[in-house]
Amino acid sequence: MDKNFKCKRIRFAGDVIGDAEFSYDENALANDQLIKDYIVALRANARQWSANTKTRAEVKHANFKPHAQKGTGNARQGCIVAPQYKGGGRVHAPKPKFDQHVKVNRKEKRAAVRSLFVQRGMEEDLFILDEAGIALDAPKTKEMSRFIRTLGKGNKRVLICLPEQREDKLFDNFILSTRNLKNVSVMTISNVNGYDLLVNRAIVLLDSATETFQTMMRGE
Asked: Number of folded domains in the chain?
């Protein structure tokens, strides 16, 4: 069953020029458990699994008995590389792990991303940017910062989605204007994953990326 949602169409100057309507296939959305499993898999696959600590057999330390077995009043100790001593080995310490990749099926990934896009649209966090005024003659961080403020999300993170094909240099200065803004990220729409949609409180789609976006929403 096809349903629709609307999002604001804005200019780089910040004024709203209308609404953009997109349809999506309700049967192609993911349930909450699938979305959770997908996000957990993304975070797990982002780990390096390179943590490495030394056990008592690996530390470089003198291997002698700290005091006599009896007569000192202290507890029995056999070696100063034991974990209770400073410089001793670690107990149950983390070791590098390999082949920890969690596989996510392509259809599940697409369904989860589609559902999160729809959720962003329903929550009015999705904007369509008219490309008429974004051809800057030079990178201008101040102009980009002003545009981000017009979205009304404060200091929250913002994601700008570009079209797949960019043969001309229309977007070059526009993209370079975001370099010094720590809460603004730019990527093509096909590279957006579910974690990007969760951590960014505003999603800005360039007008030329809406065709690809609509195809994604229909599950094609």
From this structure: 2
User: Which DSSP state fits 169?
Assistant: S
> Within this chain, do residues 35 and 74 fall inside the same structural domain, yes or no?
no
Residues 79 and 160 in one domain: no
Residues 114 and 209 in one domain: yes
- pTM over 0.85? The answer is no
Instruction: pLDDT tens for the chain, 220 residues: list them.
Output: 678 888 999 999 888 999 999 988 888 899 999 999 999 999 999 988 889 999 988 998 888 899 999 999 999 999 999 999 988 999 998 988 877 889 999 999 999 999 999 999 999 999 999 988 888 889 999 999 999 999 988 889 999 999 887 666 778 899 999 999 999 999 999 999 999 999 999 999 999 899 899 888 887 6
From CA 97, how far away is CA 47, in angstroms rounded?
Answer: 10
Q: Are residues 138 and 186 in the same domain?
A: yes
Nearest CA to 129 out of 1, 4, 14, 37 is that of 14
* E strands, the chain, in order: 2-10, 16-25, 126-129, 158-162, 184-188, 202-206
